[in-house]
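Notes from the 1:1 (GR / supervisor)

We went over the backlog. Supervisor wanted to see one worked example end to end before approving the batch request, so GR pasted a single chain during the call. The sequence is below; no edits were made to it. Supervisor asked that the structure be written out right there so they could see what the output format looks like.
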Amino acid sequence: QVQLVDAGGGSVQAGGSLRLSCAASGYTIRSWCMGWFRLAPGKEREKVARIDGIGTPDYADSVKGRFTISKDNHKNILYLQMDSLVPEDTAMYYCAAGPGPWCTGNYAYWGQGTQVTVSS
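Structure output shown during the call:
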């Protein structure tokens, strides 16, 4: 049974950093496409970043140069390092996973979400 557990959210001031984690069980993250999404009140869900089964990352324009997605294959954890945070990054963040190595835009598994709040 595939499970994803999101953690690491919190409240920070603008310019600060947070690192989100997504602990996976029931499969090996190395070979799957995984992504981070966010949902803010009154807005549509936004893809933040994704990384495919061979480790190629992709980012939304709004976070390029500030966020970094990575996998720790030994710990089976997906990370999102978020630097230079701005109030517009405030949202609930969710990780999502495959199945399969290629990022098609469809994800079968989702974490429960972790809240990120950035104050000005």
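Supervisor's comment: The first strand starts at residue 3 and ends at 7.
Batch request approved.
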